[in-house]
Amino acid sequence: MKKLLDEKSIERSITRISHEIIEKNKGIDNIVLIGIKTRGIYLAKRIAQQIKNFENKVLNIGELDISLYRDDLQKISEEPTINNSKIDFDIKNKIIILIDDVLYTGRTIRSALDAIIDIDRPKSIQLAVLIDRGHRELPIRPDYVGKNIPTSKDEIIHVNLKEIDDVEDSVTITKK
Q1: C-alpha distances in Å from residue 76, one per residue of 12, 68, 70, 81
Q2: Chain centroid to CA 147: how far?
């Protein structure tokens, strides 16, 4: 196992992504954040806190569960767990910043896009990821990236966040 990012590096990445979101959108009017369960939610909360520090405004944060939208549902489990999404605000004509921890094949993001469109039609959807590891199977690319980490298909990226993993923030890589 090799550590690629430590707590400070992750914090710097989140700060940079937050600044880029504000700059690209010329402020934060009409923006909402939606984190993909599980780690995307905690990253969304951290980005929202950084944006609040810079802009002195609170953004709406939603939680998106894509379990029912996955095309590999049968491979994951015979009895899929349904955790439910929590988006208790209007997304119609909003700029959604969709947030996830690792971008790999693009299938998770495709599922998330399907789930969002089933809720309502936003003005636009932008993608923020902490790690982009390559190997896309679909034509999806992030608007905001914490770190590009080229990998081989026999490697696994682990994102640890203290809110859920009970360890210090880190990103590590291991062989399968």
Answers
A1: 33, 11, 9, 10
A2: 13
Cα 170 to Cα 122, 125, 157: the distances in Å are 33, 27, 10
CATH class of the domain defined by 8-154: alpha beta
Q: Is 106 left (phi over 0), alpha (psi -120 to 50) or beta?
A: left
Structural tokens at position 44: 């969304």
In this predicted structure, what is the pLDDT of residue 71?
A: 63
Q: What is the dihedral of CA 135, 140, 141, 145, to 10 degrees?
A: -80
What are 148's two structure tokens? 């590009």
Both tokens assigned to 50? 């950084």
Peptide bond into 81 cis (omega under 30): no
Instruction: State if pTM tops 0.90.
Output: yes
Token couple for 83: 């955790």
